[in-house]
Write a structure and sequence with these properties.
By secondary structure, the protein is an alpha+beta fold. Helices cover 52% and strands 12% of the residues. The protein binds flavin mononucleotide (FMN). Flavin mononucleotide (FMN) binds next to strand 3.
Amino acid sequence: MLQQLINHKTIRRYTDAPISEQTLNRILTAACRASNTGGMQTYSIVVTLDKEIKKQLAPAHFNQPMVTEAPAVITFCVDFNRFNHWCALRNAKPGYGNLLSLSSAIIDACLASQNLAVAAESEGLGICYLGTTTYNARSIIKTLKLPKYVVPITTITVGYPTAEEKEKQQEDRLPLDGICHHEIYEDYPDSEIERIYRYKENLPQNKQFVLENKKETLAQVFTDIRYTQQDAERISVELLDVFREQGFQI
Ligand SMILES: Cc1cc2nc3c(=O)[nH]c(=O)nc-3n(C[C@H](O)[C@H](O)[C@H](O)COP(=O)(O)O)c2cc1C
């Protein structure tokens, strides 16, 4: 298990091999065994195998090819619809339209998704997370017919990796001592930031990104091109609206 975690690579190209029902059930069972706030399991998992529904989902994911090419597209949602309904049938008054409940449910949905990712890899499958889920949540809500108090949080595409994908190199990570603090947080002097990011900055593909985009630094590729303030603020406003439309008073 440890070696499998350390060997993780996102897989974006899949063979045509379908995922058997037993395998799918095993990885979904593992997903639902994740720790969850108060034992409430305030999330739902929507498994999309149908080609037509995948096609409908694709534009929300900016037509990333994995959505139509992967045998399974799995959407993890916060879900207070089910829990509230149970409360209503049991003379209990739920009060979960708030930020705290929402953030707990988001954590739970993400823990379930990562359990599924690890379980899938242990079955020889490959996975890719799709951050586009929160970019275009409204469209996903419509396609998957999500009721009030249900909001998609993340999506994982799952399938058997092509031979080429299996062979590709792992993505870089910052050095462990750049991420982990011992006992208390130790803020970074400039020299440490220089050291921690040096490897990433010197990777040939990253140097190429800087050149191609006519930027001075790799950091500028992130701030000016990949993850701009403008996009983040526009999408934040929309995401907040979506949570409100779905019943959350935040
Ligand atoms: C929340 C989240 C959203 C992501 N969204 C996308 C995405 O929309 N498209 C994609 O190709 N990869 C996506 N990824 C995969 C990352 O690009 C990938 O994990 C990262 O580059 C590190 O590579 P690795 O997973 O192979 O180590 C996402 C990952 C996470 C955790």
